[in-house]
Records
---
Amino acid sequence: MEWASESGAVRRHRIGGERRDGPAATQQPEREALAQEPLGGGGGASRGAGTGLSEARAALGLALYLLALRALVQLSLRQLVLRGAAVGQQGEFDAHQARDYLEHITSIGPRITGSPENEILTVHYLLEQIKLIEAQSNSLHKISVDVQRPTGSFSIDFLGGFTSYYDNITNVVVKLEPRAGAQHAVLANCHFDSVANSPGASDDAVSCSVMLEVLRVLSTSSEALSHAVIFLFNGAEENVLQASHGFITQHPWASLVRAFINLEAAGVGGKELVFQTGPENPWLVQAYVSAAKHPFASVVAQEVFQSGIIPSDTDFRIYRDFGNIPGIDLAFIENGYIYHTKYDTADRILTDSIQRAGDNILAVLKYLATSDMLASSSKYQHGNMVFFDVLGLFVIAYPSRVGSIINYMVVMAVVLYLGRKLLHPKYKTATYTKDFFCGLGITLISWFTSLVTVLIIAVFISLIGQSLSWYNHFYVSVCLYGTAAVAKIIFIHTLAKRFYYVNASGQYLGEVFFDVSLCVHCGFLTALTYRGLCSAFISAVWVAFPLLTKLCVQKDLKQHGAGGKFIAFYLLGMFIPYLYALYLIWAVFEMFTPILGRSGSEIPPDVVLASILAGCTMILSSYFINFIYLAKSTKRTMLSLTLVCTVTFLLVCSGSFFPYSSNPASPKPKRVFLQHITRTFHDLDGSIVKRDSGVWINGFDYTGMSHVTPHISEINDSIRADCEENAPLCGFPWYLPVHFLIRKNWYLPAPEVSPREPAHFRLVSKEQTPWDSIKLTFEATGPSHMSFYVRTHKGATLSQWSLGNGTPVTSKGGDYFVFYSHGLQASTWHFWIEVQVLEERPEGMVTVAIAAHYFSGEDRSSQLDALREKFPDWTFPSAWVCTYNLFVF
C-alpha cells in the first residue's frame, strides 16, 4: 500500500487553516487524542493518521479478495462427491445401477396421475425391479410389497388455501424389516409421477431410482436392521401431495413410522439440500450430521422455506401435519430454470450427483434403522437445532437454546468492547459518541439511498418492458443493480468524509465506521435471537469474527498505520464470515433467480432481484466501509462503477439482453400455459346464457406475451381475457388457484373442443336440513383431473360440505376451490355442500363451476397443436384441452 504524499501534521494544519471556523474544528484535538488511544480501537500514530491507502490497490485488493472467496465457494459446489469415498464396492451405493433405473423410468415419458404411463407402465416397472431385488436379498431381511389405491380428501393452506379430493390413486409400498419383524419404522418417500409434458427426471424419478438402489443395498447387506425401512413410491405428488396423504392416513404400515426422509427437487441435479427438519426432534439432525457422507444442509433454508416466500410445498407437510411425524426434507436445487419442463431429462443429471444423494440416503437410513432413538423418539422431540454445513465438508449442529446463549454472549462482548471506549475522559466520550451516531446515520442513509436507487432503476426497466434481462445473463444483474448499489454507498460516505468529517483522520473514521457496522450486525443478532430464529447464527459469525479480528490487529494499526500488513491480517480475519456469506448468497440466487421466471404476472422480478442484490451489497460492504475513509480518494472507483452501471443500463434499455435461451446445453425457457377450452354458462333455470371457445393463454412471468407477439401476431393485447365478474375465479378453468398471481391472460378464439369422454355434472338433490340450511348433492364424472369452484351469493354462506374435514376453506379472493383427481379407474364422484341462506333471492344462492382437464390420451386439439408449433424454441408451452361448465342454484 502507498502512503500519502504529505504528513498528517501538515495535512491537519492545512485543513484546519482552510476551515478554521468550521464546526468540526473544535473537535480536532479530541479526535487526535482518540486516534492515539489503543482502547479507541488502535487509533494510530501521527504517521498513520495522515496516511491514505492507494485507491487502485485498495479496490483491486478487495475485488480480488471477494473473487478468491467466490472461487472457493464454486469449487466446493462442483465437488459433488468427496474423493476417497467408497464407490461401487460391495455393500455401497452404485450410481450406475441407479442411473439405469432412472433411464428406464424416464423412457416411459410424462407420467401424469391417471394416465396408463403412470398407473400401469411405471408401476409395473417398479414392481418388476422390486421383485428382482427381493430375489437377491439376504435371508436376514424380509421384504413385503403392497400396492395401495387410496381415496380421500383434505384441505391445505398452500397457494392461498384449497381442498383436495382423490380417488383410486396409486402407491407402491415396500417394507424391509428383520426376519422376526419390527414395531418401528423409518419411511423413505419419493414420487414417480410427473407434471404434464415433462419426463420428470429430477422431479422425481431420480429420487425413486436412488431409493430402489438403496433398497437393493440394504436388502443384500449381511448386517441386521433393528427397525423396518418403508420405501414409499407414491404416484400422485404432483397432484398437490395426494398420494402421501393417502398413505399416512390410511395404510396399515403408517402406524409403524416414527420418522421419514423425503426426497424432492426444485432443480435439476447438483447437491441435494436439507432444507427442512423436524418439527423439533433435534435427534434427526444429529442423525444426518453423524451419518451423511457428503453433507449439504442449512437451517437458513429451512426458515426461508417455512416462511412461505417460496411458492412450493412437499410431502413433508403431509407427514408433519396429518401424521404428526418428524422428518428430513431434501431437494436438488441447482438449475431450476428447467424444473417442470421438457428439458428435465436423465442426461442432465450427473452420475456424481446421483452418487452423493445415494451415499447420503443410504447412510442416514441405515443409521436410523439401527438407532435406539427411533423406537423412543418421543423422548428426544423437544427443541430445535441450529445446523449448517461448511463448504460441504462437515456440518456444525447444536441446540437452539445453546445458540441463544452463544448469541447473547457475543452481544455482551460487543457491549464490553464499546463500553471500554465510553469510559474514557468525558471530552473524548462526547466526541466519539457524536461521531458514532452520525456515522450510524450516514450508514443507514447510504443503505436507504442505495436501495432507493436500484429500485428506481428496476421500476424503470419494468415499465419500459425490459424485465428479466438478467434471466439468461446473470452478470447483467450484478453490473446493473450491484454496481449501482455499491456506487451509491461509496458516494454517500465520500460526501460525509469530505464535507462533515473534514478534520478527522482516516484511521479514526475507520474506527468509527467499523464500530458502526459491528453495532448494526449486533442489533440484527439481538433481534433474530429474541425472535427465536435459528438463522441468527449468521449474525453471530458476522459479529464475533470481526470483533476478534479488530482486537488482534489494533496494536499493529496503532504502531504502523493502515499498511499492507494490517490489510492482510484484517482480510484474513474476515475470511470465515465473508466466505460463508458468499456461500449462502450463491444458494439464494441459485434458488430465487429461476423462481422469478415463474412467479406470475403481478410480481416485478427486477424489483425483487434488485432488492436482494442491494441487501447483499449492504452486508458485504459493511466491514469494508472503513476502507473508504482510509483511502486517499474514491473518484476512480465511483467513476468505474458508474460507467459499468450506465453502459449496462443503456444496453438493457435497448433490449440487447434477451431473457430466454433455447441453448441445448443450458436452456432457460419462457413458460406458457395453453388451454383450449369450451365454456358454457347456465342461468338459474338451467338455460345456456353464454357459450364460447378459445385458447386461454397464461404467461408465467412478468413479461406476459410481449416477447411472443412478434412471433405470433394473433396473440396481442386485443385478445386480453376479460374477467367474468359473477363467476368464481373470473370464469376460467384454473388448474390450481393461482389466479391472484397471474392476472394477465389472453383468450384467442378457436373452435369448440369435443373430448371423447366428456365430463358430466348434475345436481342430484336439493333439500332443506333441520337446521334451516340448503343441502345440494352433486355427482360428477370425467377425466383424471377436474377442478370444482364455488361462489356464494349475497346473504348466503357455505357452512359445511362432504370434503376435507367438513369445514369449507376459501381461496384468495373468497371463492372456494376443489382439486380433484383419480387413478386409472374411478367411480362417480358424489359430494354435497350446505348453504346457509338468510333470505331467498331471485339470483339464487350459489354459483358453481366444474372444469375438466384432459392432460393425456387422445383428447387433443389440432388447433392447439398448430398454435403450440408456432411458439419459438425458447419457450416451453404446456398445452391441454379443457371444458368449463357453470351453473347457478
Note: The first helix runs from residue 8 to 18.
---
Amino acid sequence: MVWGLSVLAFGLSAVRAQEPIGPADPAEPVAVPELVEPVAPEQVDLIRDGVFSAPGYAGTTLVRTQRKVGEWQVDIGDVDLHVGEYRPAGYQGNVIDLNGTRSGSIYQPVSVQNGFLYTVKFLAAGKWAAGDIRPRLLTVRLGKQKSVISISKPTDWSPANPGWRWYTADLLAEGTQSALRFSSETSRTQDGPMIAAVSLYAPQGPPGPLSGVRVPLPPDLEKYIASRERAIALGKALFWDMQVGSDGRTACATCHWHAGSDMRLKNSVHPGAPGSNFGPQNPQSASLFVAAVGKYRGVNSVLKPDDFPFHKVLQPLAPADRLGQRSKGNPVIRDTREVAGSQGVLSEDFIALLQGRVTDIGKPNLHPIFSSHGVNVRQVTARNTPTTINAVFLDRLFWDGRANRYFNGVNPFGDLDPDARVYSAAADGSMNRVTVRIDNAALASQATGPAISPVEMSWDGRRFSELARKLLPLRPLALQQVSSDDSVLGCFCDASGHGLCGKKTSYSQLIREAFRPEWWSGKRLTPEGFTHMEANFSLYWGLAIMMYESTLVSDRAPYDRWAMGDKSALSPLAKEGLKIFMNEGRCITCHSGPEFAGATVSRLRQEQSGEAGVERMLMSTGPAFYDSGFYNIGVRPTLEDIGIGASHPLFGPLSYTRQEQNGRNPEPKVDVPRDHRVSVNGAFKTPSLRNVALTGPYMHNGGMKSLREVVEFYVRGGDFPDVNRQDLHPDIRPIEGMYGNEFKVDALVEFLEHLTDERVECQKAPFDHPELVIPNGHAEFCRDAALDQLLVIPANGRSGGARLWTFEQTLERGMQWRPVSDRGHDAGYDGEPVNDIPPAEMIPDYPVNKPAEVTPKPPQDAAVSLPVYWQD
C-alpha cells in the first residue's frame, strides 16, 4: 500500500451504547425545536496530532494510564507507542498499539455541533507477534456513539506488512463538548489493534444542484450516432409507441407513464417471493414462492389504502417485536409477500406477424397464476417499476443491476454475454458480425429487456429482428395523438393529430438519419433472412431510447434553487428535514450527491472520485465486500428475492463483488479474495429520491404507499433486521431520536417533497409526451377473452397538462384519467404502412429464402436466448 493513494475503505456505522428507549407517550406533547438553516460546520480535520507525535522517542515505548502521547490521553490500561515500527508504507507518523501489557484506551477532547454526523477516518491493523491468532477488536467512540470493528490476521502477516487498511466511522454528535476515543476490546494479550493517521471531519455540506452534474453519455457515441437530435426523436417515438407490444397496445411508457413510474391500481399485484429475476435459485426460495402463490389474493384485484403498508406493525414509529425477544408491545399485525408491480401482456407464444398489423399472431398459454374464468389475464411483474427520470445518472439499472453499464447492442447483460454481436456493413454492402462495448450506456442495456420480455411487452419467443419487421413499415405512433407543441415530436406531427407524418418520419428514415451508415446500409440478408436494419434493431432501440431518456433530467426542484443560493426555496420545516436527512436520519449515507442516489456514475467513475464499484463494510456479523450503492435494508426477508445476489443461468453473477471473487475483473480498483465474505444477497439498487413524492408505491416490492410510511420504516430500523442480519446494511437500525416524534417525521417528509421538479409534476417539457391508452386491469370476461379496462392519458405539449397525483391520492380518489371501452382486437388493426424503404439489391451471404409477408417464427439464433422473467 502506498501512503496517500486511494485504498479500500470500510464504511462503519455507529452502534448505540445505550438501550433503546420506548416510544413517546402520545399524551405528552413533543417539543418543537427551533427551525434553523441546516448549514453544516466547515469541512476541516478537528484532530490535533493524528499521527501521535513523540519527539525524542524511538522503538517501542509503553505509555501508562494518565500519561499522554502528543495530544492524546491514556485513560484506561496502557498502550504501546511504536516509533519507526509497524509503520504503513509512505507514512511518516507513529503507530499506537492499544494493548501494552493489557488492553488500553486513548482519547482526545473535541468540540462538535450537536445533532450533526461526523466522520472518523483512520488506519488500523492488528499485531500478532506473540502467536495469539484471535481477531483484534477495536472500538471507536464519539461521546456515547460507538463503532466496533474486528480485524482478522492476514495470511501473510509480518511486522513489516501487518495489513493496514483505511476505516471510516460516521458518528452522531450529542452535545457540543465530546471526546474521540479508541479502545481495545482484546484482552489477555500484549498484542492488540493498532491505529495510525487519525482524522475527524465535520460533516460535508448538503449536496449541490443537479445541474452541476454532467449527464454521462458514452465517450464514443459519435461512432454510432450521426444526429443526436434525430436519435432523441426516434427514441421518444419508440418509447411511447403502443404498436411495439405484441398486443398492439403496450409501450415502454405503459409502465413509465407517471413521473417515469407506474401507479395503476387494478390487476397490479404479484404473489411475491420470486427468488430472483431468474426465478428461485435454491430450494428454500422455491418453497417461499409456492407459499406466496398459495396466499395470493388473486388476479384483477384493486389496491386500496388499507392494503398498505404490506408489513404493518401496531406502532409504526417504534421498534417492532424481534424474533427471539420478549414482546415490547409492538406486534406485527399484517404481513404479505405480495408485490405491487406493473401489468404487462397476456401469456402467449409468438407464432408469426403480418405486415401492417399491430397485433402479433400468438398462441395462448393458460398461465397457472395470471388467469381467470379459463382465460389469461395480463401478467404482473415481480418488482415495483422504477422511474426513468434521472436514470441516466446511474451506473447500472433495474433493481438488481442486471442492466449493464456496457451496452452490447443486443441485450441487457453487456460484457457478461460473450456471444452478443451486431452487424457492420462494408463499402461493398457485405456485413460482418462485430462486438460492441459501449460504456456509460446502462439506459440502452435496460431498454432492450422489456421489449422482448414475455411478461412485459412481447409474446414469448419474439425477437428484436421480428419486432423490427413489424414496426419498420408502420407509421410511428399511428394509434396515438401527438401534440403539435410536443417538445421533440411536434415538428413531425401529422395533420390529423395522430402519429408522425410522411415518409420523412418513418422509423426506417429516422434510423437512417440518426445512425451512421455502417450500422444500417448493408445490402445482404442474414442467415435467418433479415435485412441489416432488422438484424440491428436492438442496437438502434437501445441507443435511441438512451438518448431520449438522457434528456429526462429534473434539475429544477425547489431544492436545486436552494442549493444555488435561494434560501427561500425551502420552507422552514423542509430545512429542518434536510438537517435530519444529513445527520440524525443518515439518509445521505446511501442517497448521496446531487442525484440523491447510490451507485451513480459521478460517484463511481469520475476522476475526482476515489470510490469503486466494490467496497468493504463492517456488517453486523463482521466485515464483508459488497456492491457500492446496492443494499439489503430489510424490506423483505432475503430469500424472498436475493436481488443483485442472483446469478444468470449462463452468464453468472450479476454482482460486481461476486464477479471479482470468481476471477472476472469488473472493478480493477478492488481485489476480493476467494476466502473473504461477500454481502450481496437481498441487496437492491439505491434509487434517486428526486420526484419521490410522485413515484409511489415505494421499495422494490411496492409495499409502502406514502413517504410517511417509508420514513416510519427507517425510524423503526427496518422490518426484517434479524432475518436479514447476515447481509443487512449496518445503518439499518432504529433512529431513537425520532421514536414517536411526528414533528421530525413531518419535517423529513416535507424535505423529500421539495425534491420534486414542477415540470415533472405538470408534465412540461422535457417531460411532455404523446397520448397513451393504458390497461388498468380487466373490465369483463367474455368470448374466451379478458377485455381490458382502458384509461386514456392525454397528449401534452411543452407547456404541460394536468398536475400529477401522488400514489396515496390515487388510492383515495381512484385513477384520474378517463376510461374508454375496449373494442378488442378481433379484426386487428391494419396499421398504415409507410413503404418507404427504397428498393435495394438484397444479396444473401448464405442461401436463404426471401421472407414471406407472413413470417413463421424462425429458428433461434446461435446467441443465447434471453431469460423468461423481466421483472422491473
Note: The radius of gyration is 29 Å.
---
Amino acid sequence: MEKMFLSMRRGQKNAHLRKILMAMKLTFVLFFIAISQLMASAASSEGPRISLTTETDQTSLGTMNAQPDRTLTGKVTDSSGAPLPGVSVVVKGTTNGVVTDTDGNFTISNLPQNATLQFSFVGMTMQEMAVGNQTSLNIILQEDSIDIDEVVAVGYGVQRRSDVAGSVGIATAEDILRTSSFNALQGLKGKVSGVNIFTNSGNPTGNTRVVIRGINSINTSSNPLYVVDGVQMSDFQFTNPNDIERIEVLKDASAAAIYGARGANGVILVTTKRGGGEGEGTTVSYDGWVSLGRIAKKVDLMNAEEFMEMEEIGFANFGKYPQSMGNVGMTVNRTDPRLFDAQGNPLYDTDWQDEATRDAISNNHQFSIQQQSKGSSVGAFLNYTDQQGIMLNSYMKRLSAKFTYDATPKPWLSTGINLMVSHIWANELDETGGGQTARRTMWEMPPIFPVKFPDGTWVNSQFTGNQLNLGLEAMTNPVHELKTRKMHRFKTKVFGNTSLTFHLADGLDLKTQIGLDANLNKDNNFSPNDLINISSPNGRANISTFDRYYWQEETFLTFNKSIGIHRINALAGLSWSQSTEASTNTGDVSGFSTNFFGYENLGAGTTPSAPSSGWSRWAMNSYFLRGSYTLKDKYLATVTARMDGSSRFGMNNHYGFFPSAALGWIISNEDFLKDSEFINNLKLHASYGRTGSSEIGVYSTLATISSGTVLLNNNRGASTNVARLANPDLEWEKTDQFDVGVNLTVLDNRISLELDYYYKLTSDLLLARPIPYATGFSSVTDNIG
C-alpha cells in the first residue's frame, strides 16, 4: 500500500489539494473541494484540520517527484535540550530515512517536494514537521507518558487502570487508525499482546479471525465476544474503524468471567465516539485518505517459450517410466495457427498475474459533527469507504452513519441514545469453485494462450481437448471469470442502544439499557454459461438471504466509593437476550441459454434444484455480581460471579455458574520503592476463573424432525423422520484458567512491560459422540473430555 498525506487548515486555499487530486486524475475531486469550502465557511482558520491520507507499504508516490540534490540537516533534542541519538527520521509516506548520531544530528537527502518528516523515538511522542524551503531543522521531542490511572472499561462499567487485577489490553483510536485499514480488526493487529489476527481470504470482505490466548475448543468457534457500547455485536469486522474511540481486550478469566458463558474466548470491549468535546460549542471535522494497493511480490512463472520447452521435454520422456494414463498427446504443438506463427514461435506470451490483477485505488472519507452544550451533547458521523481489491473487479463499498445523543435532564437522571446504520455492497472472489479459482488459475494458465482470440472469444485451457494428459488440468480463464462472474453480497446493519441511568446516591447508580443488533444479508451469484468451470458447466445462479435480529436488555446497579484508604467498586445486575435467525436459499439453477438475465431471472434456467429455508430462535437469562476492593492503593482484590441460563442446553442443565477471583499487589506504591526515579509502576497480579461456551446448534439437545421424500409402489411422496437423538443432560463447555503476571513501567512512564503466564483447561467438550447404528442414529451431541 502506498501512502501520501496532505494536511490543510480550513481557512487556507485549496490550490495544493486541487493540484494533487488533478494529478492523480481522481473523479471525486469536486467532492473534496465542496467539503473543504463548506468547512471553511463553517469555522475560523484556527479550526480543526482536514487530512487526506493514502497508505503505502512500499514505494511512495511522493518519491516520483524527488529532487536528488536537495539535502536537509538538523538536530533532535529532548525538552531539556539534551541531544537524542538513535531518533528515526523518515520522509512521511516513504522508506527514505536516517537515524540521528550520538549528538542528535542528522542529514537526509533526496527530499521530494512538499516533504513532511516524521521523528520517532521510544518513549517520545512522534512529531511531524513540514520541510517547506528550509535547509535545516531543530526538533524538540516531548516525553510520551503512560497514564497508569486512566479509566478503562471492564464490562458493565469502568475502573482505574491501576485497580484492575485482571489482564486487560488497550488500543486507542490512534492505534487503530494508524494503519489506515478498512477493517477495524486489521487495525488492532499487533497492538495488544496475546491477540492473534488472521486473514484467510483474498476478498475485501474476507473473514478476519481473532484468537485470544490460543484456541479453547476442538469443535466450537474460537471467536471472542464483541461488546460495542454495552451491546453484543456480530460481524464486528465491518464496523467503521473511524467510529471507534478505544478498544479494551479482556484476556484472562478474571476479566472475562463477568460475561460468563460467552467469555471463554476472551472479550473485546469497544467504545465508540460520541458527541461533546473540550468546552461548549460545535466541532466539524473531515478526514480522508486515498490508497494504492498492489501485489507485493509476484510468483516467478515460465514464459511462453519456456513452457513449450517443458512440454516437449515431458513428451519426449513419456514411456520411460511406468504410466497409468494410457496414450498421451502433447497439449499443444507448434503447428496450431491459433497459437504459433509459421516458424513455430508462440504468438502470445501472456503474464496471467498481470492480466488478473491491478493497481487498486481505494479511498475513505469521514465527516463528523460533535456538539457540546450545557447538559447535553450530540454526535453525527458519516462515512463512505470504497475498497478496491487487487484482483480484477473485486471491491467492497460501505456507507455508514452514526448518531449519538447524551443528556442529563435532571441531576438524578442521565439518558443516552446511540444508533449506527451501515450498508455494504461488494463483489467477491470465488474461493470454492471445485479448486477452479482465479487466484489459482492465474498461476497455472499456460502463457501461450491469450486472454481472448482476435474474434473476441474467451480462451479457456480445455479448447484443445486433451489437457489432462500431461497433468495440465483443464481450467478457467481467470480474466474471464473475474470479469463475467457475479458474486454480489449486500449487508445492512442496524445497531444501537438506549439507556437510562438513575443517580440514586453519591456513587450509587442504577442503569437500564436496551440494545439491538439487526443484520440483513443477501448473496446474489451468477456464473455465465460460457464460463468453463467444473462446478458450473451450463451457467449457474443462486440467491440466498440470512437475517439475524438480536435483542438485549440489561439492568444493573453499580457502587463506586472511596473511603479513606479504601476504594470499593461493586456491581450487581441481570441480563436478558434473544436472537432470531431466518434464512432462504433458492437452490442452484443451471442450464441458461443466455446470460442476459443473470440472477435477476432465475426462471431463465432450465434445471432448478430444491430451494430451502430455515428459522431458529434462542434466548439467555443471566445474573451477575462483581466486587473490587483496593487498600492503600497497594493491595487489590476482585471477585466475580455469573450465572447463565440458555435455551440451547438440555432441560436438566439450562444454567451454568462461572466464578472468578483475582489478587494484585502494586509494589511500586510501597515505601521502599515509591521514591524510585527509575520504576514508576510495578504490579503483580494473579487470578483464577471459569468461563464457558454455548456455541452449539440452537436445537442440539432436542430430537428434531426432518422432511424428505419416499418412493413406494413407484409413487413418490412426502415423508418425515426423526433426524437427531435428544440429550436432555447436555451441559456447558467449561474453560478454567489460571493467570499470573507482572506490569512494569519505567523511565517516567515511557517504557512499559506486560508479562503473563497462563494455563487454560477446557472440559466437557461439546462433540458428536458416535453411537451404534442399531439405534437408528450415527451420533448424539454430548460432553466429551
Note: Residues 1-68, 323-328, 464-471 have pLDDT under 50 and may be disordered.
